[in-house]
Design a protein that fits this description.
Elements (H helix, E strand, L loop, with lengths): L1 H28 L5 E6 L6 H4 L7 E6 L16 H11 L5 E7 L3 H7 L10 H6 L3 H4 L9 H17 L3 H10 L2 E7 L6 E4 L6 E3 L2
The chain binds zinc ion.
């Protein structure tokens, strides 16, 4: 914890003076981020850093492997990701949902592993099972199955988003955009998905 307190002191001394006015406005008027980002919990993939975003700009949901589940009719349990998506779409009226995948994703490595899963007792194993539909689409003999699954998981998550009635309604009624991108941890490159073709191409 000490290093966090030390980091906070640096923030308070160096960054806070320049952010003070922005935070005062955000406190008075509330937040109105235009983008909901679904990103991985991976410590190397921070959306605010990657997109050079200030406080108030991004509403961020982070979880293992940047996934959204399909809409579940069963409301038993605590659907944190679904609740955050609902809040972003129906309360904050975000204009875009961006699914941000990344290279070297540990969740993707786990999904590709042949080790047995215990979805009855492991939250993680059950969650990783969300990648199975994407995994099933990776062609046999694919040269780089990790990268292929990272791309495919973004596409599947966007498909899952469309199973939420409030997402479909926002797309139809006010033009909510569903976007995908993949971040290269090693080189800092960003590839953006073409919504029509599902293909990714680098930002230059
Ligand atoms: Zn990851």
């Amino acid at each position: 914890m000490e290093h966090l307190i030390e980091g906070y002191r640096v923030y308070r001394e160096r960054r806070w003076p320049e952010l003070r006015a922005l935070h005062r406005r955000l406190a008075e008027r509330g937040q109105s981020p235009r983008t909901l980002v679904i990103a991985c919990s991976d410590s190397r993939v921070d959306p605010a850093t990657i997109f050079n975003a200030d406080p108030g700009e991004l509403f961020v949901v982070r979880n293992v492997a940047n996934l959204a589940p399909p809409c579940e009719e069963n409301h038993v349990g605590f659907h944190g990701v679904s609740a955050a998506i609902e809040f972003g779409v129906t309360k904050l009226f975000v204009e875009t949902i961006l699914v941000l995948g990344h290279a070297q994703c540990g969740g993707v490595v786990a999904a590709l592993s042949n080790a047995p899963r215990d979805s009855q007792h492991s939250f993680l194993d059950a969650w990783i099972g969300l990648l199975d539909p994407a995994k099933a689409r990776i062609p046999p003999g694919c040269g780089d199955p990790h990268a292929a699954l990272e791309y495919e998981s973004i596409r599947v998550t966007i498909e899952n988003l469309k199973t939420f009635p409030f997402v479909r309604a926002a797309v139809a009624e006010r033009g909510l955009r569903l976007a995908g991108a993949r971040y290269g941890v090693a080189d800092g490159g960003l590839e953006v998905m073409d919504p029509e073709t599902g293909r990714f191409s680098p930002v230059v």
